[in-house]
């Protein structure tokens, strides 16, 4: 078994087991507390809760059109009933599962780039799949598995653990994770075909599956009233199957967001 496929198989096994458990015990899904019961932390709220605002996103392109630039975009980390938005991930909560819900999720991803210098155009992926956010007494766990329903037809999966450290009114959230991308996903975006190699002068390259560790830090800083300053920093160390591509300029990917948001309760 290729080493790169192990994390994906583990995640698929986890989700398959949890999904079967939910289906085998449908009565548990009916035991949610009534809307008036505020003692249940998982009770869905028929109102907007969380943070909405505007942020400056540091876009760090790491492909043929590698460049860094800032973009001002909406910022959302909020829930409304079963619907949720977590930065670049959006979806719907379905069955209760452990300390959270089984979720149907999609992601906004800008891995594509336009045709240039003998390279064909890569279309942005359309990642859709399942996931869960488990807010346990020991920290938060994010698990997601996506399939690209656009050109690559590849698979993405991630597992992230986030702790919480309170320093007076400021909350810090250190994060540790791992991201898996299948060979078909990587080869579509960072592979170089024989025809592209001949036209561009770049060496031919076939990318395999990748497993990349990630490290992040988020900070929530109260400003005044319900206004907050939100900061997100993340670095991903690229697996050699991606980093060795002639289309990739750096061995790390960095993300930074600074946002001002209003907190709905």
The value of Rg in angstroms is 20 Å
Approximate shape: globular
The topology string of helices and strands comes to: HHEEEEEEEEEEHHEEHE
Total of helices: 5
- The strands making up the biggest β-sheet line up spatially as 1-2-3-4-5-6-7-8-10-11-12-13
Instruction: Please give the alpha-carbon distance between the first and last residues.
Output: 48 Å
Largest sheet, described in full? 12 strands, antiparallel, barrel
**Average pLDDT, to the nearest integer?**
87
Strand content: over 45%
Ranges where pLDDT stays below 50 over 5 or more residues in a row are 1-8, 10-37
Structural class: alpha+beta
User: How many beta strands in the DSSP annotation?
Assistant: 13
Q: Give the helix proportion (percent range).
A: 10-25%
Task: Give a short summary of the structure.
With 265 residues, the protein is an alpha+beta fold. It is 16% helix and 48% strand. The chain has helices spanning 6-24, 26-29, 183-190, 194-200, 240-243, and strands at residues 48-60, 68-80, 83-86, 89-97, 100-107, 127-136, 139-148, 155-162, 165-167, 170-181, 210-222, 227-237, 252-264.
Task: Provide key terms for this protein.
disordered N terminus; twelve-stranded antiparallel beta barrel
Can you put this structure into words, describing what you see?
With 265 residues, the chain is an alpha+beta fold. Helices cover 16% and strands 48% of the residues. The protein is built from five helices and 13 strands. The chain has a twelve-stranded antiparallel barrel. The longest helix is centred in the N-terminal third of the chain and has 19 residues, at 6-24.
